[in-house]
Amino acid sequence: MSTRHPEELKLIEFADGELSGREAGKIQRHLDTCPECRTALEQIKRTFDACEPFRSEILPGHLHPAPARWADIYCRFEEIDATQEPAFFLRWLQYAGGAKAWAAAAVALVVIGALVYRLRETPAVQAAQLLQNAIVAADSRSVKPHRLHIRTKDHNVNRLVGATRNALMTTEDAATLHTVETMFAAARYDWQDPLNARSFKTWRDQLPEKKDEVVRTSATYLIRTSTNSDEMREASLELTAPDLRPVEGRFEFSNQDWVEITDLGDDTIPAESAAAAPARHTADDSAPERPASSAPSSSVPAPPATLGDELHAMAALHQVGADLGDPIEVARSGGKVTVTGIGISPERQKEIGEALATQANVVLRFSETPAASVQREKETPAQTTSNGDIRQLQAQIAAQVGGRANFEQLAADVLDLSEPMMARAFALRRLSEEFPAAAESDLSSQDDQVLRTMRQEHTAALKQQLLELERVLKPVRSAWAGSQSPAPGGHPAFANWQAATEDLFQSARAVQRVLAVTFGAAPGDAAGDQLRVRLLVNLDQLHAKLESYERANAQTGDRRDK
Amino acid sequence: MTLQDEVAQLFLEARDDVYRYLMSLGLGPDQAQEGAQEVFVRLYATLKKGEVIQNPRAWIFRVAHNLGLKVRARQGTHRSLDHDLESLLPGPLMDPEESLLKREQGARMRSAIQQLSDQQRRCLFLRMQGLRYPEIGAVLGIRASTVGEFLRRAISRLRKDEL
Asked: Does the domain formed by A289-297+304-372 have CATH 3.10.620?
């Protein structure tokens, strides 16, 4: 029988059938021999069961019923079927250029507006249709040379499109462009004008198999096509909603290379000047940078990012748990909130990008190499091995919990629990650093509430994790009942929650450190008895710090409310 | 059975649940009903394009969730579920014939569920719709492990209220 009780979360997942067969089997074996956990599981099931009437009886009985009769859904389906044909008036526009191109352009704006409205209202926004419409819209505009900013993994370069002359460029720039051109040629994607709906459509149409996605935001459409049958595995094109003008594209290749292209607008500056702007080569600058929000780069500049914008970005990250250990930094600079992620997996990048998609003034950057500025603080122990005293303490604990195997399990549990606890402490400290007391008053009351909620959630989780940690450590603490545990000291009063956070953070870190040494995850040189006392004291202190923090938090809130 | 029939069948089965979910996001009754219909129309359009949807029920709630948030953002309103709960449970709408026991049960339930955060409530609601954790995560834009954590917190809170 395993003496380690499963965490409550595991029991809930077990009750809901969310565990793998192996994990479920492990829990079941434990339950077979543990009445305590069986009771806990029964309580969980009872609670879930008690919620069911809420959904099936109480909620339907008391929620406003649908105010009108449900419409005949078949009629809406017929509408969908009828919208498959392209709009005839856009075809007409193709022929309305020539001498009266300006008039056609004016009409096009009106028609495109109507079309965009229709697309917004029509659920079946199809990539092919959108591309076709974008081609028609592009044909109604006069062609001007324009500049593209091209980013690859390790180089940035500007390029002129639609001009007979070339921008002056360095040898390195030229080599980068040549490499990119070769990649596009291999994928049979037109490099002459890559940020163009027609080029995109031509590439897309030739794919034997593909998957499309169209994402509509308030200001843009994003068409994303992915395939397994081409050198280019995924291409996305962002079109502004008002005029279906391509503003940004991202192209990913089978060899993991990627290219991002941003339209810099008409070529109104001399080519020499464009080339004179040096391409950025630093490790930091190699990260692709893109607006997280959908505002096109050619639109009227947004006002500079505020503290509130930064808070909203952090709250959005918080929603997807990206403030709990993901190597992400949030900072305000150059009028924008810059969210930088290092070494984040593509799936996670997508989640984070989606979480920030609706945030104003946010620029999202991901890079693959860790940067010193966002690396989490790590302890650098002076020693490299545990001393004999610590090994003796570990042997004592092993004897208390029933053997070395149980000690290993206990150590794994303890270390697993201390990590998320520290993640919460880090998250709280980050909030206190980003929103110092002096700046906090700049937040609106609504934003202040958002900040408070985030703090409360982190604190509640930290508290829960501490309790869980203590539950796991209970057999050890019971055996140490005779040990002197000096009083943790008085509860210091703090001027604000920010000051209390640092104290709380340091206390949590002390607990993590002593646990790591005690359970062999980090070397240390303390005497065994000393370590034992320190562990007891640090745990008690963390409780006290949490209380102080909560008091300071509440007082800050009260002051603000007044 | 045609594609239209299949989606219409699902519409009949799940439209009220989607309507309630949209209400829980803070939409008014008119918007919630319109939104619920829109979700099924989108489902039809997506399936008609040939896309494969493994779990239409989870897909429906994900689209409903995003739609609800967009509508709410457009309006600039942030009515929480708490607001709607005010009109849900024992009050003038309660049938006077209803048993005292049921009324008490409703009152206790209301009080307990009001204590939960929006995310906890949504996780609980979607779980009660039969969605798996990864599906709930996809609806709410969070990880499956986070869903578990929200549910754990919800259960802990509800247990304190002896539900």
From this structure: no
